[in-house]
Amino acid sequence: MSGRFRWPWVRAAPPPGSRGSDGPSRRRRPWPSRGLRRFSPSLSVGTLAAQVFLLQALIMLVLVAVAAAALLIQGRYDAERSARDRSLAAAEAFAHAPGTALALRSQDPTARLQMAAEQARKGSGVDFVSVLDAHGVRLTDSDPALIGTKAEGVGRAAAGETFTETFHGQPTDAVRAVVPVTDASRRVVGMVTAGIQYANIGAVLNRQLPLLLGAAAGTLVLATGGAALVSRRLLRQTHGLGPAEMTRMYEHHDAVLHAVREGVLIVGGDGRVLLANDEAHRLLELPEDADQRHVRELALGPGLTRLLDSGETASDEVIRAGDRLLAVNIRPTAPYGGAQGLVATFRDTTDLRALSGQAELARGRLSFLYEAGMRIGTTLDIRRTAEELSEMAVPRLADFATVELLDAVLRGEEPTSAVHEMRRTALCASQAGHPLQPVGEVIRFVMADTPMVAALRRGKAALVPDLHAAGDWRAQDPEGARQALAYGLHSLITVPLRARGVVLGMANFWRGGDAPRFEEEDVAVAEELVARAAVAIDNARRYSREHTMAVTLQRNLLPLGLPDQDALEIASRYLPAQSGVGGDWFDVIPLPGFRVALVVGDIVGHGMQAAVTMGRLRTAVLNFSSLDLAPDELLGHLDEMVSRLDTQTATADDDRVPLTGATLLYAIYDPVGGHCTLSRAGHLAPAVVDPEGRVTMPDLPLSPPLGVGGHPFEAGELELPEGSRLVLFTDGLIENRSRDIDEGLHLLCSTVAGADRTPEETCRALVEAMLPGHPSDDVALLVARTRLLAPACVATWDVPFDVTAVPRVRNEVSRRLADWQLEEAAFATELILSELLTNALRYGAPPVRVRLLLGRTLVCEVSDGSSTSPRLRRAATTDEGGRGLFLVSQFADMWGVRYASRGKVIWAEQTLDRVVEPDPTALFDLLDF
């Protein structure tokens, strides 16, 4: 009970037979009569007063409504009759006016009558005055647009009859009068109609309507107010209840008041007790004669006496009464209709307080563990997680906390069964100068009877509540134990760090000084805390292992070194993301004719799977580049391969990263003329820095990423002067959470601008200016500075399409080799040239061209206009030909075919620092025919 009572107290004696009629009921005070006001029944339909009020209100409402309706009908009738009279008077006055009949017989009656009719309308106060001819056609009207139109329903006036009517039709509904105009011979020569629009008749009534409704409302309010006064008087006299209801109310109230297990005390305005139920007598130990005694005379204790005597409001205020703790609620009775005083309720909370203390302690521990779950494991770093465990424990659980981990765990490896040697990884202390071993030292558990070894053996926490009384823990290090006791350490909990059933390390919690000893409840908290930390440490260990494996795989899949070539000076960078390696990669691929292919790509996703996917794509690019395809053709073959591979694995139940969506930029640089051909699949265009240091972003054709399909790939052309720098990169270089692509491109251009910078210096400047310490995305960067092959190292001959030209070209090639001081390579070169040139003249198409390129190797190229590809095969004994390419393969280090926009180029490459020795057996087999 809250102290607020819904039933009144009456002074009348209780009915015979009730609990208030016997002797023991003297504790129960009779009800004061003034309290009946608190129980005043509402004006409900069930009471007589309410029914009388409703009947009177209904009668008044009907009478007012009937009177208002009668007034409205009468007003409408009077307004319409007045409109008829005014309309008839205006029409007759104008029809009988001198000159009206004469004007109707004139040549232009409209001109003579229009103004007069308008003046008559204004003077009479009607809405319209119209003059009609004998046929009903309007000659004048207040609306000039109606002149010339025929009026409806005027036939009676044309026959000589004057009439008024309520007209409904065009142009508007109106009350009108129609009067015929006759000449001297009583013949109808026209008609005059005047009237008031029907809407304007209602407007007059509408102006009177507010006054009428206001009077009706006032009458209704006065009548209703009178009925309410009568009903209120009747309600106050009867209270809305009969004798049976009053008796039943008293019995129910008495039963509830004395049956509840809550003490109720009612105190009057003078501080005397008016009522105390049975529970209040028991809890407060009140005397039998407590009724009508002042609260200061009841020996309730100073706190409770002060509350009751002051009359202050209280809510669940705990007061000691003897050996009990009572929750007291006090409310005044005056605001609720009673006399001045208060109601106090009492609940025994002695047992509840003890339970509340335990619940508060449990809540604090749960809050501590929840906070630990949020703070431990915020990073995937093993050492930092161990530090978070120790920092969380001090000082809320312990004064000192240490964490030891196995060396294998610290390296990210799987823990072994050898758990008796660990390395201290974290230590947190509430005081300085402690005797505990510092971080980094090796902790050995070799004594079988120490708490640490026992905890490791059982896989559960070990509690040593009193280190002074326990002797087994000193066996491991007696001197260290003596120093710990001298420092003030007196209690220990040691818990093994276990995850997935494997021991990762050990956590020790110490208390010292004035802190209380550890108890069993503390052991449960420590075990839960360490269990959560163990999962976080194991996750960090597994992540560290996977990250190391992914980085190793990524490094091995990327180029281990840049290949030797003379066309470009190259520098590169690869930076893995903070969250792990990704799929960004680059490659430098030497091609025949001293050309070099530059590749930069980006794979969707991160982690080991992205690294493996990158390796698959890089291998495919290497394979396709061996075919010496143009960049757009290579990307077309690569796109087809990606689509096929992803289609084959689309239904596979694994977590492999798809190839679709990978971006790629493939560029081929030719040092002979400084020509660069580029094609890109969804990748960013490179930056070009000319020898003067000006930066441009070339507008190259852009195709969708690999695997999208349905779109052709296009190539762009660049002419790069010697000393130009080509900067290829992935989006991780220019874009991050705080910078968009446009800002990144602007920063990149400003960083690489400037002349006389080497590729290595350019890479270093870009990394320092554009990348934070731990980038959120991995970055691949490739910077190449162009070189040109000297014109003296290039020799070209256009060959007539005639086999007789072969000796002449061979002799010119020999002379050029002599100029290059390559007489030792002359024999092999002439043999290669003869075979290649003869094949082009016999089986190819014009034009035929021979080109020699001198660099670190000697390249001989023969091009023709045919797209037929030669094939190396072993000729049969009876074959007359088919041995030329076999000879070329024996005397050249490498040879191959590449296709141009028109025709093909067959090339052969020889190393200059050694002479190729063909296989004699193969040559004898070749000549044995």
UniProtKB/TrEMBL annotation:
<keyword id="KW-1003">Cell membrane</keyword>
<keyword id="KW-0460">Magnesium</keyword>
<keyword id="KW-0547">Nucleotide-binding</keyword>
<dbReference type="Pfam" id="PF17203">
    <property type="entry name" value="sCache_3_2"/>
</dbReference>
<keyword id="KW-0902">Two-component regulatory system</keyword>
<keyword id="KW-0067">ATP-binding</keyword>
<keyword id="KW-0812">Transmembrane</keyword>
<dbReference type="GO" id="GO:0016301">
    <property type="term" value="F:kinase activity"/>
</dbReference>
<dbReference type="GO" id="GO:0000160">
    <property type="term" value="P:phosphorelay signal transduction system"/>
</dbReference>
<feature type="domain" description="GAF">
    <location>
        <begin position="381"/>
        <end position="547"/>
    </location>
</feature>
<dbReference type="InterPro" id="IPR003018">
    <property type="entry name" value="GAF"/>
</dbReference>
<dbReference type="InterPro" id="IPR029151">
    <property type="entry name" value="Sensor-like_sf"/>
</dbReference>
<comment type="function">
    <text>Primarily acts as an independent SigF regulator that is sensitive to the osmosensory signal, mediating the cross talk of PknD with the SigF regulon. Possesses both phosphatase and kinase activities. The kinase domain functions as a classic anti-sigma factor-like kinase to phosphorylate the anti-anti-sigma factor domain at the canonical regulatory site, and the phosphatase domain antagonizes this activity.</text>
</comment>
<dbReference type="InterPro" id="IPR001932">
    <property type="entry name" value="PPM-type_phosphatase-like_dom"/>
</dbReference>
<dbReference type="Pfam" id="PF07228">
    <property type="entry name" value="SpoIIE"/>
</dbReference>
<dbReference type="GO" id="GO:0004722">
    <property type="term" value="F:protein serine/threonine phosphatase activity"/>
</dbReference>
<dbReference type="GO" id="GO:0046872">
    <property type="term" value="F:metal ion binding"/>
</dbReference>
<keyword id="KW-0597">Phosphoprotein</keyword>
<protein>
    <recommendedName>
        <fullName>protein-serine/threonine phosphatase</fullName>
        <ecNumber>3.1.3.16</ecNumber>
    </recommendedName>
</protein>
<dbReference type="InterPro" id="IPR033463">
    <property type="entry name" value="sCache_3"/>
</dbReference>
<dbReference type="GO" id="GO:0005886">
    <property type="term" value="C:plasma membrane"/>
</dbReference>
<keyword id="KW-0904">Protein phosphatase</keyword>
<dbReference type="Pfam" id="PF13185">
    <property type="entry name" value="GAF_2"/>
</dbReference>
<feature type="transmembrane region" description="Helical">
    <location>
        <begin position="48"/>
        <end position="73"/>
    </location>
</feature>
<keyword id="KW-0464">Manganese</keyword>
<keyword id="KW-0378">Hydrolase</keyword>
<keyword id="KW-1133">Transmembrane helix</keyword>
<dbReference type="InterPro" id="IPR052016">
    <property type="entry name" value="Bact_Sigma-Reg"/>
</dbReference>
<dbReference type="InterPro" id="IPR036890">
    <property type="entry name" value="HATPase_C_sf"/>
</dbReference>
<feature type="transmembrane region" description="Helical">
    <location>
        <begin position="211"/>
        <end position="230"/>
    </location>
</feature>
<keyword id="KW-0808">Transferase</keyword>
<dbReference type="Pfam" id="PF13581">
    <property type="entry name" value="HATPase_c_2"/>
</dbReference>
<feature type="region of interest" description="Disordered">
    <location>
        <begin position="11"/>
        <end position="33"/>
    </location>
</feature>
<keyword id="KW-0472">Membrane</keyword>
<keyword id="KW-0418">Kinase</keyword>
<dbReference type="InterPro" id="IPR035965">
    <property type="entry name" value="PAS-like_dom_sf"/>
</dbReference>
<dbReference type="InterPro" id="IPR029016">
    <property type="entry name" value="GAF-like_dom_sf"/>
</dbReference>
<feature type="domain" description="PAS">
    <location>
        <begin position="251"/>
        <end position="316"/>
    </location>
</feature>
<dbReference type="InterPro" id="IPR003594">
    <property type="entry name" value="HATPase_dom"/>
</dbReference>
<dbReference type="InterPro" id="IPR036457">
    <property type="entry name" value="PPM-type-like_dom_sf"/>
</dbReference>
<dbReference type="GO" id="GO:0005524">
    <property type="term" value="F:ATP binding"/>
</dbReference>
<keyword id="KW-0479">Metal-binding</keyword>
